[in-house]
Design goal:
There is one protein chain. The chain is an alpha/beta fold. The protein contains 16 helices and 15 strands. Helices cover about 35% and strands about 20% of the residues. Strands 3-4-5-2-6-7-1-8 form an eight-stranded mixed beta sheet, with helices on both faces. α1 runs parallel beside α2, α13 packs parallel to α16 and α14 crosses α15.
Amino acid sequence: MRVTQTIPWAPFSDKHKRYIHTSLSKTFCVAEGAIRSGKTIDNCIIAAAYLETCRDKIHLASGSTIANAKLNIGVCNGFGLENLFRGRCKWGKYRGNEALFLNTQTGEKVILFAGGGKADSYRRILGNSYGLWIATEINEHYDSDDSRESFIKVAFGRQAAAADRLILWDLNPCNPRHRIYTDYIDLYKKQGLPGYHYEHFTIADNLAISQERWEEIEAQYDRNSVWYRRDILGQRCAAQGLIYQSFADDPERFLIDDPLDWCQEHRVHITTVMIGVDFGGTNSATKFQAVGITPAGVVIALDEEYIDHRKRSVDPDRLNVLFSEFVRRVTELYGPAETRADSAEQILIRGLDHTSQRDALHTNVRDALKLPIHDRIKLVLLLMSQGRLMISRKCPHLIEALCTAMYDPAKFEDERLDDGTTDIDSLDAFEYSIEPWYKALERQGFRR
């Protein structure tokens, strides 16, 4: 008996059916709304139907990074293009680019996957003409007034010669003044652009989400945060005011006197020790921040070293000595650590690495990942909302930084205000220390 594996589809709401059906006869379709509302799945279905019969061979799938594009469009939790073309596709390389090769009713099609989040991302999509451009999280793609460097404008240009042009975008809501709205989505809607179709979704539109699952997702968010309004309620809203309002309102909820005593009292232990390093300039500070992580995903800020360059001049040799002393202090109490340092200062990083080897310190020094700031903020808000962030009173600079961190009201991107009123160095060092565990800490919320 032959068994065929099928995709476990759930019923589609009327709104999703209408969006898919209407989009099949359009050339530019945008799906905006809450997370887990089914936007990307709809666009993958539309793309699959298009790819079966289109005349163009080369196509583009993009996200903020290549990994993001492959995960959200290629895989899409089992509903992506590799599943829709199961048995008729294979992953490989096309002229050096990550690609998915499809066997369709009208011959072979090649989908190139690209990251569009950086200023030089456009370079990866030059040299080809694309029929389909499917983009996830389009607001995370790099854009500028220079049409030669904007990923979005370059991608549009690469479709100019397409026989059957199709554009499929999805995004979660962001700042209403973001240029993705003013220059594209809302502008095209207002102009009545031929072939343009827009739809907004909420989680309630996804019939596959059970009440239990909905409550698990909602529990990941601080209800007072901009991310709750955007991701859960599906609303466009500006990030403004204090970033960590709940922390600023009651910091005592998060503070502990001694990390080891707290661990003993709560019958937990630290299995991972991380040190984040942010190098400051003449008008800022260098910050060493140590954190511990428990098996249950609780993050504990253990200790800090704050070197204010405005008050004392510190040359690289002295900086290495201070780093050595800090690492010894941390590792003697909590065990071996991994160090992540600001990758923009390679000479200083090599100095720390050399010091670690020379002094036989129990740490290895690597570059910080430097994830987008809004991703780092969301992770810290998640930890706070679930009671998985504790901070030792030995970290006064981090405590003050979390109490005063604000969004920049003048920016349409979600940027922190950096005018000297907030200790950005302490925030960066703390985030560098936990961002390597971003996915693990994020998933932990579903298991609690």
